[in-house]
Amino acid sequence: TCMLVSMFANNMKAINGSRVLHFTEAQTMQDSSYRELRRKITLLEEEGICPDPTRGEFIAPVMLKAEWKVDGESHYAMVCIYDAAGELLEKPNENAEVLDNVVYTDGWLYLIDPQNTKFGTTVETLSADKKNMILKKAKILDIYQQRRWQQDVHKQNRGTVHDVMQQLLSEVNTEAQTQNFYRNLWNCYVERKWMRNSSDVPEVALILSKSDDVISFLNEKYGQEVPLFDRRIDYISPEGSELWKDRKETIKQIFKEYVVDIDNLNADYPAAPDVYLASALGCSTKEDTDGRKVVYKLDGIYDPIRVGEAFVRMTMNLMQNRLEREDK
């Protein structure tokens, strides 16, 4: 939900940075679901309050009109965006009513939280609070204790403070998580007997969301040659497309090392995904209260990172595919 709200904030700036593809809203304030979305956008823009997480229930789609200009000629498409929790696929029989509305879509954007990947179990990418929690567990929270530990490493024949912290972090099997998403999605299609051939499957994009959590680490390790977190939004301009090709190879390396090897998913799903880095907010959040309930507010400057890229590129691909089919 936060990603969707951020895409629509600032007059949809995040998805309208190209002269090739342009989106306009296809709903009015008479629509209650659209009115609720606008309320969330206002809270984010004016008060820095982030929307609640996506619920495991049916949420009416957001509708946009897309205009694609090819050689001066305009082509149009209605784009419906469903905000659905990925957990719905884990128990399809219990969520059949919701899935029947969303499973036949043309594309899926699957968001992955860095904390649910190997980033969440790597010392260099831990938050300050989590580092302190691990150091406390190791009984070396005090800085003087850490210094003494480091000084005695060779004498005591033991690992460094870094080694001790890394050993206390549990590994996350992200490969299995992503494979399960693909397998569950594929099974939902097969069970509904909708699949006719492999070309019917929707496009899938994997997005490492909240990437601002690991921006310093990734820039230091991978970002010397490719601007991973370039905030320009001309995603499908000739220049933007060239930069994306270079960036995509680096992002694939990042996914392979910390998330999932997309070239060897070994899942039933026949189509390979695209991969992206994005951040809906571009800054951290802090817990607060509005007098009635706990809310999360921006703890920095709202500055989203490539929040609309996956959506724009997928829409572009789908419109292009449809036009090619019509030409045959």
Mean pLDDT: 80
Question: Which word captures the global form?
Answer: globular
Number of strands: 8
Provide the spatial order of strands within the biggest beta sheet.
Answer: 1-2-3
Helix/strand class: alpha/beta
Low-confidence stretches: none
Fold and architecture overview:
It contains 11 helices and 8 strands. A 3-stranded antiparallel β-sheet has the order 1-2-3, covered by helices on one side. Strands 4-5-6 form a 3-stranded parallel β-sheet. It has a two-stranded antiparallel ribbon with strand order 7-8. Strand 7 and strand 8 form a beta hairpin. It has 328 residues and is of the alpha/beta class. It is 40% helix and 15% strand.
Secondary structure elements and pairings:
Layout: H1 2-12, E1 21-25, H2 32-47, E2 62-70, E3 73-81, H3 96-102, E4 107-112, H4 128-137, H5 143-151, H6 153-156, H7 161-168, H8 174-191, E5 203-208, H9 215-222, H10 238-258, E6 274-277, E7 285-289, E8 294-298, H11 309-327
Parallel strand pairs: 4-5, 5-6
Antiparallel strand pairs: 1-2, 2-3, 7-8
